[in-house]
Design a protein that fits this description.
Layout lengths: L15 H7 L7 E6 L3 E6 L3 H14 L6 H7 L8
Antiparallel strand pairs: 1-2
Length: 82
């Protein structure tokens, strides 16, 4: 747990120990939600396309990818039809 102070522009610095623990970096985006009793919940935004791209890179590295034409042929699709 850490303590931070808001400046006149509404900025709050996340303490270094928390940034390190959570792997936060400059440019990360966050969701904010408020609850009764003055509680603010903050969650780091995760782009689902980043996870898909990571999976695609892993599959390519492992040789598990296929050519689009091979996939289309398997399902009887002509990729040249407009």
């Amino acid at each position: 747990m850490g303590i931070a102070t808001m400046d006149a522009k509404g900025r709050i610095a996340i303490p270094a120990e928390i940034r390190t623990q959570l792997g936060l970096e400059a440019g990360d985006a966050f969701f904010f939600d408020t609850e009764t009793g003055g509680v603010i919940r903050i969650a780091k935004v995760h782009n689902p396309f980043d996870a898909l791209a990571d999976d695609a890179r892993d599959e390519r590295r492992l040789g598990k990818t296929r050519r689009l034409r091979d996939y289309a042929a398997e399902y009887g699709i002509d990729p040249d039809v407009e």
